[in-house]
């Protein structure tokens, strides 16, 4: 665990610790000290990747540009620069050389991505790095930090769709079936890999830091631990589940519990990373979104490159809705598919600034003070990626919906009762689906994908409280508490006969 005293032992040189560092050289040596990547060892998959590395010039590249910049903008930065904002203070985006990617047709990219699924070849067996050319094309394979994340289950919600929604083509993308139990792994493998590269280039990066409502800190701590990079986590005190809190602690992060909400933690980490050589890992950093967009590409792969009609994504800091848009958009632009799905962003009513902005016709965005919600990971009132989310939704005829606490908990319980075990955030997205079906916006035959962002086990206490009917002012209509019975055969038989009688056809 990194301590405050050990941080202070570094020579910080404040004059060089700024929001931007220009790279002089991009030469990176491999782990065996050679620039050519050759190795006589065949002991592991990294060595094999080095031996088989192509010696031809990499035709693909990417750079930072101001988000939604005008066509005549010339502002850009290398991905090897440490920078989070444009000159105007706006967001940055990772822009790929689309013309270079277009030198291959859609069929080529489909075949390439499909050929890598689930393999152990480093690093392409990962759901993220199987799309390396579209993610971080210039990084050396040896610098990548991966847990073979992604390739998550696309669950056909047959019974849930039929019984509760009258739908026959409903799917749930279980992004929470991942290394640390959330979709955040998809972005963190990219960000930590780039930090690993920067540190090998001897840039002043002491560690990586984030503000978090739980899942970001879990992903950051795991990938930093795998790479041997110090991680610093700032959490809002008493506002995340114990299962989420224990992850960064177990992975050796330096954890600060702050008496504020997520927005307060976010303000602190942004100020800290301006003063200390700590790399910012929140979704303000556009590298994260490059990994997260691969979940959209995965969905298309899993449907054999057929495009669903709708994709519903829970939204808090709002980077993920843009990431899904970006993944679908790249597939459309490069000819892998012939259309885009419509996106829905679902917010908790207790933290709904995007929903209010949408209902106001996208006029005069105003942050809100987020109230407590069981969907704690999206309890964010001033989302960093608001501009990204609005852009994405406007460009795919998207919709924003909200869910009350009772609605999201009921939806979660209904999903669980049909064989799933989802998080409250998935309950928010399912509530949005209920509302859009009831209004006839989503048709019973529309192929619809609900994105589940975290594993249900992270929120076991919320589920216990629901099924125990221990939540004040909530009916908990679908609760299923255990029945207490005496240790007597007759008593047990009476209870079982009553239960089975109620289930008789």
TrEMBL record:
GO molecular function terms listed in the Swiss-Prot or TrEMBL record: pyridoxal phosphate binding; threonine synthase activity
PROSITE patterns hit by this protein: DEHYDRATASE_SER_THR
Sequence segments annotated as region (Disordered): 28-65
Domain of life assignment: Eukaryota
EC numbers on record: 4.2.3.1
Subcellular location: Plastid, Chloroplast
Start-end of Low complexity biased regions: 33-44
NCBIfam families: thrC
UniProt-recorded name of the protein: threonine synthase
Species of provenance: Arabis alpina
């Amino acid at each position: 665990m990194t301590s405050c005293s050990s941080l202070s032992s570094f020579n910080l040189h404040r004059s060089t610790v700024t929001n931007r560092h220009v790279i002089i050289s991009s030469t990176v040596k491999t782990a065996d000290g050679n620039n050519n990547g050759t190795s006589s060892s065949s002991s592991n998959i990294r060595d094999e990747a080095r031996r088989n590395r192509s010696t031809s010039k990499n035709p693909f590249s990417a750079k930072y540009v101001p988000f939604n910049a005008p066509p005549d903008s010339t502002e850009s930065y290398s991905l090897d620069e440490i920078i989070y904002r444009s000159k105007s203070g706006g967001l940055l985006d990772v822009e790929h050389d689309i013309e270079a990617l277009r030198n291959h047709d859609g069929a080529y990219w489909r075949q390439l991505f499909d050929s890598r699924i689930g393999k152990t070849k480093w690093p392409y067996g990962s759901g993220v790095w199987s799309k390396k050319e579209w993610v971080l094309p210039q990084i050396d394979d040896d610098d990548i930090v991966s847990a073979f994340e992604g390739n998550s289950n696309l669950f056909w919600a047959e019974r849930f769709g039929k019984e509760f929604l009258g739908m026959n083509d409903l799917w749930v993308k279980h992004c929470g079936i991942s290394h640390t139990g959330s979709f955040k792994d998809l972005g963190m493998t990219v960000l930590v890999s780039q930090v690993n590269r920067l540190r090998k280039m001897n840039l002043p990066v002491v560690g990586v830091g984030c503000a978090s409502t739980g899942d970001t800190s879990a992903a950051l701590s795991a990938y930093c631990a795998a790479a041997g990079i110090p991680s610093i986590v700032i959490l809002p005190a008493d506002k995340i589940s114990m299962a989420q809190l224990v992850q960064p602690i177990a992975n050796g992060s330096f954890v600060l519990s702050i008496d504020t909400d997520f927005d307060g933690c976010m303000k602190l980490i942004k100020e800290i990373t301006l003063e200390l050589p700590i790399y910012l890992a929140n979704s303000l950093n556009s590298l994260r979104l490059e990994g997260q967009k691969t979940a959209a590409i995965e969905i298309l792969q899993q449907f054999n490159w057929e495009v669903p009609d709708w994709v519903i994504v829970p939204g808090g800091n709002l980077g993920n809705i843009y990431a899904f848009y970006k993944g679908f958009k790249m597939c459309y632009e490069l000819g892998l598919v012939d259309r885009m799905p419509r996106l829905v962003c679902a917010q908790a009513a207790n933290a709904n600034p995007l929903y209010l902005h949408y209902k106001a016709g996208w006029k005069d965005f105003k942050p809100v003070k987020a109230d407590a919600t069981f969907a704690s990971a999206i309890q964010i009132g001033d989302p960093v990626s608001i501009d990204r989310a609005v852009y994405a939704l406007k460009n795919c005829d998207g919709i924003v919906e909200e869910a009350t606490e009772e609605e999201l908990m009921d939806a979660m319980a209904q999903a669980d009762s049909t064989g799933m075990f989802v998080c409250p955030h998935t309950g928010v997205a399912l509530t949005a689906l209920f509302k859009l079906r009831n209004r006839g916006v989503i048709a019973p035959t529309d192929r619809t994908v609900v994105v589940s962002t975290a594993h249900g086990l992270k929120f076991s206490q919320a589920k216990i409280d629901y099924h125990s009917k221990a939540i004040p002012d909530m009916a908990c209509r679908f609760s299923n508490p255990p029945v207490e019975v005496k240790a007597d055969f007759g008593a047990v038989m009476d209870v079982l006969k009553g239960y089975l009688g109620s289930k008789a056809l």
